[in-house]
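Hi everyone,

Forwarding the result from last night's run.
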Amino acid sequence: MPLPESFGSWEHLLKIIRNFHNWRVRDFFKHDRYDRHVREPRIDRPVNNLMQACIIGPNDSAIVVLVRVIFFEISLGNAARLQPIYYGLPVQPFDEDRMDDHPQILLYFEEDLAVTPDGFSRVQAHINFRLMDETPSTMTQTKAKVIANKIKAAFGVIPTWDFTKGKYIYSYQDRKKGYWLQIYAINKTEAVGVIKKILSIQGHEYDEDRLKESNAPGKQSNNNPGSHVIYGQTVRKKRYRPEKKVRFRYALLKLDGFGAPIVLYDPYHRCNISAIADN
């Protein structure tokens, strides 16, 4: 159908914009939590006032139409629909890489008491990873025993495997396989050795591209920082990331919703609960 001779571009555009915009305004306010009734033109209540300010009239100028649209889309907070939710990762991979729904293995390391200086606590290291092929509901005692024996094979019997903890931080991330490791070590070689040892438990290969090293700390490690007086007593100063050997002590399995962690391997009998690894 050809355009009529009396066709007005502005009148036509205004009609289309008015019909579409006003329908959206009425629909938006119809679902207001305070008043679900369809709204008629009135200004005796705050919500009615807002709706009437957004409605485009047949005689509105282009400027008034634009102001009403901006007020509705921006000022009333409806502009969020203009862009999708952004996670920083595509939505599907983000959800697939969730780690907190899977069983967690916790590995504990500690300095030998015989080499701990007087006045200091033993240096410790805690490392954990997830079993991404399992969930709390699929995990069984048989499966737990398999992973316990693998941990025993990796860290050995008394004296168990150790590494030198230090001031440098090395992170290794592979969320699909359950790893978000943060290792404090004296150098990269030592950190990679720890990471490979942990990966060996599940038979996973080390990927150099997943290793990241933090910037060098602003101060040096100090195994013996001296003493100072606090509350009239001479006490040791706190050590900053001391360089100390820490030895594997025990491993736990944590299942969300199960309660107390399950002792997998405890060669030094530190947990006072029988471990499930083979003797």
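The chain has six helices and ten strands.

Cheers,
N.
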